[in-house]
């Protein structure tokens, strides 16, 4: 592949001709790249002068080894190592060696300086290390091409104003030099022809680590991995850096209550990673308010525990104990007394009460506030991190190397007038059809697994019912605390969670495979396609079981003698019924197991897998002294973060966001669980970045990308799902209708909500095999529905109360959705996406850029003419906004 950047042919920086055009398929795999950017906090990133190194602590020890293995410089001790490439000899060593020589020649032609460590100096005696130093000219050239913004004038805008009770936030703050490692400046895209216009005090420290990182990655072209263990304090003070400060003030769990050093994260890892941690931190902050309201709602349920008349009636031996309920399954399920569900009715009240309605409405508004205030925070970061005019075409819209290699057809680009690779329409359609079929197949597989879990619930319920009998039996304690419904719900939820994890494991690889098969042209297109595929799958995989319990279970049951079956009556799998208190407690159980299980498993996986892999990779050299190896060798075994590393971090949090919004009406404590998880998640991710992963390639990003639109879609859908949960899954609407239309209070509600059926008319296939002694004199049983009793002229048809309740449910959905949507859109309209002070700063910066550039051009021309010996009689020089007349010489 031939890569030409810049405005003219003479500005070509790197040309890789045979590295990717060869038919051997080696390509970029010839060199596994990893980089090392070195900056000293004590000396502004310059390291320690050569004359002073002998006096450094620990230097005498490292001097005993030749060469110095703890150094971060070339052997001359002057040129800093900016990048390191590694490679290993193999069977095709001669062919690859020739290509490596060509590659190194291209690097040197581009102005980079190289130094090689022989494999005999490495701990495995097989790995070569090619150290690269980028001189000022190379950095300046690429900064000009990439239009990197650099300071030209110190900002005269104050940081912020003192706020009342500011001292309350001091325990949560980090030191000022960590939060703001550099002063604020007005910035402008770098131009190598106007170096005097910029504030260049020291060329070695002018570009921050993340910028040098990005320039090096752009120049070397390969994705790379960081190789300096900066989370440990180095023996040489010259290797102390931002990474150690990040580990000390950010990655340790004891800092969980501290704010994040976002500016230092951005300075070291780049804006793309910085924006992720900024979003995660802001999301966690906003979760605090949702968690507080959820705790208040749950507390209300606890405090009103004794005022729950419905549960009292169910548990009362004279009311609930005298009500005989119809069997919940065929043959195996007995007739049962209503008071056997006493405990589950009390549990349901904790989450199914009047406070849950207000909490559901609050969460609809909270989601809007979260998204709107995040836009404002994002806009502020865009300004502070010089991303206002950043165009992602510079990076994300570059043609992927895989596209160039696999697309052999060429056509003329109408804009650039150059030949470029393209994918024929027929091949593109065939690939899309295969991709869509694969995605559809896996979604169908998920649905099939969910149907299998439902069938398990139906089949195993009968087994549990035959074991866990009425509490009058011998296993009274077990039957009282573990009902067949609870046992079935818990075991089915656990099985469903295991299936989710297994399907997720395989589909992650399938999604990457089919996205690669589509051969997207640009990196941005690749990420967007993968994002949509993965989220669509995760949405169905994680939420489908919750949707079943919330909107389908207990809705298509029928009534005694006319039950509905899942696969027809021959299957004997009768559709599930809900408890007399509703299905909300089962939805809560399902949500808790899946959400908490996913978070627990995810944190264990994130913390242990990199640690174990790094230990396994370094096991051969773990008995040797650490100072025997160079710093890049010590971390050569660290895990590669990968191009899609952040993708999976976002995916994990967006799935969690769906749990706490789509079904939060069933479990007000979900935001509290998410808050506790995210406090841990931030520190685990920080620990991984600073200790377990090679440093990722620094890259820029203005926002969180396609995830923003997904969050907006989930936020809108959450209003609908919570309205339907409150109307059809919760028992609140039937209680309200009875309270205001059919009774003077809640007494008698339980009896009113149960219909009567004549036992003599129950078909033999529905009758239980065993009868209890107290059943002999019973002629009727009760079931959960609103139907006319036996003997009525409309017996077993729905009563008018059923239609009143249905109308009330639909009215509640319409009213709640409209109220929340109106408030949502009003709040979104009321809160501007960009803060007013940020708009003012952007305008002032553009004003200063225009004036300063004009002054610079005028002064440059004046100095040029003065140097040429030209006279200026009555000359006029424009400075700022004033004209100054100069007298004749």
Automatic annotation (TrEMBL):
GO CC term (a single one): plasma membrane
UniProt KW Cytoplasm keyword: no
Domain Anoctamin transmembrane intervals: 265-845
Pfam families, per the entry: Anoct_dimer, Anoctamin
GO molecular function: chloride channel activity; protein dimerization activity
Entry membrane topology: Multi-pass membrane protein
Family stated for the protein in its record: Belongs to the anoctamin family.
Entry protein name: Anoctamin
UniProt organism field: Sparus aurata (Gilthead sea bream)
Lineage: Eukaryota, Metazoa, Chordata, Craniata, Vertebrata
Gene encoding the protein: ANO5
């Amino acid at each position: 592949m031939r890569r030409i950047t810049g405005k003219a042919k003479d500005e070509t920086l790197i040309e890789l001709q045979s590295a990717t055009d060869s038919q051997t398929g080696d390509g970029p795999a010839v060199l596994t790249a990893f980089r090392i950017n070195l900056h000293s906090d004590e000396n502004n990133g310059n390291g320690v002068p050569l004359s002073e190194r002998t006096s450094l602590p620990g230097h005498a020890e490292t001097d005993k080894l030749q060469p110095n293995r703890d150094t971060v410089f070339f052997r001359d001790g002057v040129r800093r190592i900016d990048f390191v490439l590694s490679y290993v000899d193999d069977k095709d060593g001669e062919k690859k060696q020739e290509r490596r020589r060509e590659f190194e020649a291209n690097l040197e032609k581009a102005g980079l300086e190289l130094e090689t460590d022989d494999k005999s100096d490495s701990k495995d005696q097989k790995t070569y290390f090619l150290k690269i130093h980028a001189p000022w000219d190379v950095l300046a050239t690429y900064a000009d091409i990439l239009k990197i913004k650099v300071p030209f004038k110190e900002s005269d805008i104050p940081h912020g104003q003192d706020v009342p009770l500011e001292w309350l936030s001091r325990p949560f703050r980090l030191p000022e030099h960590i939060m703001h490692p550099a002063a604020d400046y007005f910035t402008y895209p770098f131009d190598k022809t106007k170096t005097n216009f910029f504030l260049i005090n020291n060329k070695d420290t002018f570009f921050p680590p993340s910028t040098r990182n990005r320039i090096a990655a752009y120049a070397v072209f390969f994705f790379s991995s960081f190789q300096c263990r900066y989370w440990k304090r180095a023996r040489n003070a010259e290797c102390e850096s931002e990474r150690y400060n990040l580990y000390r003030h950010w990655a340790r769990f004891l800092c969980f209550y501290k704010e994040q050093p976002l500016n230092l994260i951005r300075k070291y890892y780049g804006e793309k990673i910085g924006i992720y941690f900024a979003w995660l931190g802001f999301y966690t902050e906003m979760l605090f308010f949702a968690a507080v309201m959820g705790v208040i709602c749950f507390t209300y349920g606890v405090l009103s525990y004794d005022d729950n008349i419905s549960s009292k009636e169910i548990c009362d031996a004279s009311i609930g104990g005298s009500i005989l309920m119809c069997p919940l399954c065929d043959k195996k399920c007995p007739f049962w007394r209503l008071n056997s569900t006493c405990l589950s009715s009390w549990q349901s009240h904790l989450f199914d009460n009047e406070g849950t309605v207000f909490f559901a409405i609050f969460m609809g508004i909270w989601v809007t506030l979260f998204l709107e205030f995040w836009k404002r925070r994002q806009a502020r970061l865009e300004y502070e991190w010089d991303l206002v005019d950043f165009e992602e075409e510079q990076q994300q819209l570059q043609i992927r190397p895989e596209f160039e290699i696999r697309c052999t057809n060429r056509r003329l680009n109408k804009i650039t007038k150059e030949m470029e690779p393209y994918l024929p329409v027929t091949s593109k359609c065939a690939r899309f059809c295969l991709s869509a079929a694969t995605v559809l197949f896996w979604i169908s597989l998920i649905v099939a697994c969910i149907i299998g879990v439902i069938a398990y619930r139906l089949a195993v319920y009968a087994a549990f019912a035959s074991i866990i009998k009425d509490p009058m039996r011998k296993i009274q304690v077990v039957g009282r605390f573990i009902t067949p419904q609870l046992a079935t719900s818990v075991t089915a939820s656990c099985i469903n969670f295991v299936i989710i994890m297994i399907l997720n494991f395989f589909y992650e690889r399938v999604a990457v495979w089919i996205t690669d098969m589509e051969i997207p042209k640009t990196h941005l297109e690749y990420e967007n396609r993968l994002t949509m595929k993965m989220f669509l799958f995760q949405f169905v995989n994680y939420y489908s079981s919750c949707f079943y319990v919330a909107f389908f279970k207990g809705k298509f049951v029928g009534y005694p003698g006319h039950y509905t079956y899942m696969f027809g009556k021959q299957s004997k799998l009768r559709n599930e019924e809900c408890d007399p208190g509703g299905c909300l407690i089962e939805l809560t159980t399902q949500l808790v197991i899946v959400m908490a299980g996913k978070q627990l498993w995810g944190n264990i996986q994130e913390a242990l897998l990199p640690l174990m892999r790094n230990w396994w990779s370094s096991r051969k050299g773990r008995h040797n002294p650490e100072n025997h190896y160079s710093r890049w060798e010590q971390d050569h075994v660290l895990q590669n973060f990968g191009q899609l590393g952040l993708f999976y971090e976002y995916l994990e949090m967006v799935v969690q966001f769906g749990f706490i919004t789509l079904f939060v009406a069933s479990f007000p404590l979900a935001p509290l669980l998410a808050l506790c998880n995210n406090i841990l998640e931030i520190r685990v991710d920080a620990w991984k970045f600073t200790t377990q992963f090679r440093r990722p390639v620094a890259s820029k990003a203005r926002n969180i990308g396609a995830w923003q639109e997904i969050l907006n879609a989930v936020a809108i859908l959450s209003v609908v799902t919570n309205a339907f949960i409150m109307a059809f899954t919760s028992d609140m609407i039937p209680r309200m209708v009875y309270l205001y239309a059919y009774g003077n209070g809640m007494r008698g509600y339980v009896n009113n909500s149960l219909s009567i059926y004549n036992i003599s008319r129950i078909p033999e296939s529905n009758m239980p095999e065993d009868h209890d002694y107290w059943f002999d004199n019973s002629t009727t049983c009760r079931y959960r529905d609103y139907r006319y009793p036996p003997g009525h002229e409309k017996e077993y048809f729905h009563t008018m109360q059923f239609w009143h309740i249905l109308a009330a449910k639909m009215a509640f959905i319409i009213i709640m959705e409209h109220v929340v949507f109106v408030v949502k859109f009003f709040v979104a309209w009321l809160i501007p996406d960009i803060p007013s002070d940020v708009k003012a700063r952007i305008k002032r910066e553009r004003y200063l850029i225009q004036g300063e550039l004009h002054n610079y051009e005028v002064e440059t021309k004046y100095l040029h003419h003065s140097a040429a010996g030209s006279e200026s009689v009555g000359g006029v020089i424009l400075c700022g906004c004033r004209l100054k007349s100069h007298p004749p010489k």
